[in-house]
Amino acid sequence: xxxxxxxxxxxxxxxxxxxxxxxxxxxTGYACGAALDRGIVSLDDAAxxxxxxxxxxxxxxxxxxxxxxxxxxxxxxxxxxxxxxIDEAGRHVERALGxxxxxxxxxxxxxxxxxxxxxxxxxxxxxxxxxxxxxxLFAGELLRPxxxxxxxxxxxxxxxxxxxVGIMPGFGKQEPNPFGLGFEVRGAxxxxxxxxxxxxxxxxxxxxxxxxLWVDPSARLALVVGTAHEFCDAHREVLPRLSDAxxxxxx
Length: 251
Fold this sequence. Notes:
Elements: E1 2-3, E2 6-7, E3 18-19, H1 24-37, H2 54-58, H3 83-97, H4 101-113, E4 119-120, E5 128-130, H5 132-143, H6 150-157, E6 166-168, E7 172-174, E8 184-185, E9 203-206, E10 211-216, E11 221-226, H7 233-250
Antiparallel strand pairs: 1-2, 3-5, 4-5, 6-7, 8-9, 9-10, 10-11
Helix pairs in contact: 1-3, 1-4, 1-6
InterPro entries: Beta-lactam-related, Beta-lactam/transpept-like, Diverse_Enzym_Activities
Domain Beta-lactamase-related: 21-227
Protein name: Beta-lactamase class C and other penicillin binding proteins
């Protein structure tokens, strides 16, 4: 559990390397935000399928399939969760930079925050590995942002492209299914991996290897979780209960 001042409570092995999977998307969103702040790219850049922009890619609204360049629908019609779309967003920024996107993530996010044990294995959507202690450093940044302008931080962590309907992996159809740029936004989703006490503005992500991070801006708290096995029914039950318990005790 993390507050603006740092870690408030912790249990378990914080130094064991874990597979972050889709938690990686938040690092990508943040690194893309750094490129936005420097004028290297724009959210309105054409990127992805015809009619799609960088904003569509980062907000899961480009129309790309989950894991391929096949196009399911026109951009902006539905929140169709796509690892391929996030990877393509990373490639778009990489082309604009003229350098490796992973190096950019390290330079703009990991190194400034001291996240020196994170391994970036190539995929902007699912490629990061690291200990929970390093993920807690990122949670602290999200509570007291220093690396992005206020305007870009707001864009990254709040709802983009309106109230689109879509499938939330692991939790079924959500109406609406809000996302920011690489970050999921809780909204009124039910069922959900955060708790019933979490503010609708809560943002974060979970990964299918059992790692998760949420930030509740109203409570000024963050929770970082790492487990030892793939996401399953136990996570669906325990994560919301844990979130509610943390908020009940510390918010």
